[in-house]
Write a structure and sequence with these properties.
- This protein is α/β, with parallel strands linked by helices.
- Helix content is 42%, strand content 9%.
- A hairpin with a 4-residue loop joins strand 4 and strand 5.
- The longest helix is centred in the N-terminal third of the chain and has 29 residues.
- The radius of gyration is 33 Å and the shape is extended.
Length: 457
C-alpha cells in the first residue's frame, strides 16, 4: 500500500488544516481498531476437530506415550492383543493330520491313541478367471414361404455389451465406493480377474448403468417427500474444474444425494417439491432453515463452537452453555425410553437453566457472539425432547457426506455432469440400502437387476 503524498501545508488555511487533522485522526482510529482486531485473532487458539468443523484428518496428531515408529498395524508391544479369527462354519475341505509313530520310541500309534491338539483354518483365494460364453445365433430360412426366422437366445444373452451385470456391478462398486480411477480400474481388472476392460469400455458401461440408478432415485425421492423428519447437509465437489455442491437429505429410512451448482435454499425447494416435513435437522447455515414446522439445531456443532469460545478465553458464557448442551446430549441417548411427561419435565428444566445462562453478560467477543446466537435459536435446541424420533445432531448427514469428501480428495472431482449424477445416484442407493441392512455391492447388483431388495419397505 503506497502512502499518499502530504499536501503542501503552506497553501492551506487554518480551517483546511483543522479538517485535515480531523480526517487523519479518524483514519488513525480506524487503523488502531483494525490492528486490535488482528492482534486478537493472532491470540485465538487454532481451530481443530474438537472446537470447530475442521475434520480430524487435518488436525495435529499427538504421539502416544512411549510410541515408536513401526511398519505395520499393531506391531510390537503397541496396541491391544488380538482375539483370533473365528473358525469357518462350513469349510470346503478338512485335512486331518494324525501321528503314525511315536517320535521318541518309534512305536506305532493307532486311532485310539490320537487326541485333537488344535484346530485352525487356512484360507486361500482360487484364481479368478472370466467365464466366456460364445453365442452362435442362427437364422432359419423357410423353404415354404421364403421367410427368415432369427433364433431366440437365452435371457441375458442378447447382442450388445459383452459384460455381465456382475462385472458392471463390480466396476461401479470399485469406482464409486472406493474412489478408484478409470486408469487404475483398467489396470486392476486384468491381474485380479483376468479380464481386459479399456477405459472407454468402462465409461460406456457406466453410461448404460445410469438409467437404473436414476429410476431408483426417483423411487427414494418419492418416499422422502412423504417423510416427517428430514436431516440435511452439504459439501463442496468439483465438476469440470468448477465448484459445485453435494447436498444430502436423509433420515432413518432413506438417503438422497443431489449435486447442484448452487448452495442456495432453492435446492431444498426443488428437492422437497412443496412437501413440508414436521421437523428439519441441520446446522445453522441459512439455506438449511425454514423448511419445516420445527427445527432441531445440530448440538454437535454447538458443542464444538462452545469449546472454541472457551479456548479463546470466554470464562463466563461458553463453559456453562457447553455443560448445558452436554446434559442435553446425555438425555438424548435415553429419549426413546423416556415417557412423554418425563421428556417434558426435562425440557422445562433445560429451558430454565438456559434462561439463567442467557442472563449472563460475557466480556469475551466469542462469548458475546454465542449469546446472540442462542438468543435467536434457543427454542430449537431441544426439539428432540418433543419428538423422540428426532436426532439431537446432524451426524447422520455428515457421515453420508464423508465418502464424498474422500472421493473429492482422491479423484479431484468429476469431469462431466452425468458422472456427478451417477455418483449421487449410487450414493443414494447405497445409503438407503445400508439403513435396511444391505451392503453396498449387493445394493448395486439389485439396482442393476431391477430387484426391490435394496428398497426400503
Amino acid at each position: 500500500m503506497v502512502l499518499p503524498p502530504l499536501p503542501d501545508l503552506t497553501t492551506l488555511s487554518h480551517a483546511e488544516k483543522d479538517a485535515l487533522i480531523v480526517a487523519l485522526w479518524e483514519q488513525v482510529g480506524a487503523l488502531m481498531a483494525r490492528v486490535a482486531m488482528l492482534e486478537a485473532k493472532l491470540n485465538e487458539p487454532p481451530k481443530t476437530s474438537d472446537n470447530s468443523s475442521v475434520p480430524p484428518s487435518k488436525g495435529p496428531k499427538a504421539n502416544r506415550e512411549g510410541e515408536t515408529k513401526r511398519e505395520g498395524p499393531r506391531q510390537g508391544s503397541v496396541g491391544r492383543k488380538g482375539g483370533g479369527r473365528p473358525l469357518s462354519r462350513d469349510p470346503d475341505q478338512i485335512v486331518s493330520a494324525k501321528a503314525t509313530a511315536c517320535r521318541h520310541c518309534h512305536a506305532a500309534l493307532g486311532e485310539d491313541d490320537q487326541l485333537l491338539q488344535s484346530r485352525y483354518d487356512k484360507i486361500d483365494l482360487p484364481p479368478v478367471r472370466p467365464v466366456v460364453t460364445r453365442v452362435e445365433r442362427y437364422a432359419g430360412h423357410c423353404s415354404c414361404c421364403g421367410g427368415t426366422t432369427l433364433a431366440p437366445v437365452p435371457n441375458g444373452m442378447d447382442e450388445g455389451t459383452p459384460f455381465s451385470p456382475r462385472i458392471v456391478a463390480t466396476a461401479l462398486y470399485l469406482r464409486f465406493t472406493h474412489a478408484i480411477s478409470y486408469q487404475r480400474l483398467h489396470r486392476l481388472f486384468e491381474p485380479l480377474f483376468g479380464l481386459v476392460i479399456s477405459e472407454g469400455a468402462l465409461d460406456a458401461m457406466f453410461r448404460r448403468a445410469k438409467p437404473a440408478f436414476d429410476d431408483a432415485v426417483v423411487a427414494i425421492l418419492g418416499r422422502l417427500r412423504r417423510s416427517r423428519i428430514v436431516c440435511s447437509d452439504e459439501t463442496s465437489v468439483r465438476i469440470d474444474g468448477k465448484t459445485c455442491w453435494n447436498w444430502v437429505f436423509q433420515n432413518d429410512q432413506m438417503v438422497i444425494h443431489v449435486i447442484r451448482k448452487t448452495r442456495g435454499a432453492g435446492v431444498v425447494t426443488e428437492v422437497m417439491d412443496g412437501h413440508r416435513p414436521v421437523i428439519w435437522v441441520s446446522d445453522l447455515y441459512g439455506a438449511q432453515q425454514g423448511h419445516a414446522d420445527r427445527w432441531q439445531v445440530c448440538l454437535a456443532h454447538q458443542l464444538r463452537d462452545c469449546q472454541f469460545a472457551i479456548d479463546a478465553g470466554d470464562t463466563i458464557f461458553a463453559p456453562r452453555m457447553k455443560a448445558l448442551l452436554l446434559r442435553a446430549v446425555v438425555l438424548a441417548r435415553r429419549r426413546k425410553t423416556l415417557a412423554e411427561s418425563t421428556r417434558r419435565e426435562y425440557r422445562r428444566r433445560l429451558d430454565e437453566d438456559l434462561d439463567a445462562i442467557m442472563a449472563l453478560v460475557p466480556e469475551n467477543r466469542h462469548g458475546k457472539r454465542l449469546r446472540k446466537r442462542y438468543g435467536k435459536v434457543r427454542f430449537d435446541l431441544f426439539t428432540f425432547l418433543i419428538d423422540p424420533d428426532v436426532p439431537p445432531d446432524n451426524n447422520g448427514s455428515e457421515r453420508e457426506l464423508r465418502p464424498t469428501a474422500t472421493y473429492r480428495k482422491v479423484t479431484g472431482g468429476f469431469r462431466s455432469d452425468w458422472g456427478a449424477e451417477l455418483f449421487a445416484g449410487i450414493r443414494s442407493v447405497v445409503g438407503t440400502a445400508a439403513r435396511n441392512g444391505i451392503d453396498a455391492y449387493t445394493a448395486i447388483q439389485n439396482t442393476l437387476s431391477g430387484s426391490t431388495a435394496s428398497k426400503p419397505g
